[in-house]
Amino acid sequence: MKIIIQTSRLLIREFTPEDENISIILDEDERLTQYVKKRNLQESRQVFKDTLKEYKNQSGLGRWGIFNIADNDFIGVCMLKPNESDGNSIELGYRLHFKYWGSGIATELAQALVFYGLNEVGLKEICAVTHPDNAASQRVLSKAGFVPNGRAFWYGEDLPLFKVSKAV
Q1: Which of the 8 DSSP states describes residue 155?
Q2: Which CATH code of 3.40.630.30, 3.20.20.140, 3.30.160.270, 3.10.450.120 fits the domain covering 3-165?
């Protein structure tokens, strides 16, 4: 298991095969899927299997688990990887268990992923999209340095696009 990032509260790491069930739980909670693509159990299992396979390419990008450093509780999932619709854009995304909403963890996570992507992976730019009604995620992105940058047709929808770039 490879640790990607550690903050004062968060451990962001590669998933292990034993983590499959905790990852799938996120897809079963309707509060957590109201703004993202819905998956059935088979699709969730396939995404998890693909995630484990992607670790072998060692690009520094991927989909990872977020855990509470204090008690190792599973907080959610995050990603920094090429977008499905536009492989030239590296997308930041996350989904947290409901009990962690409003705690500042999403902002801490997004800031850590931006720092990691721009400074450790060497990306020049990171993109993110949100559902137009997801004001909370839009605030998180703003706090992490993202700025509105038009719209993108990703995930079969026309969505607000946000970008953050490495300062030169």
Answers
A1: T
A2: 3.40.630.30
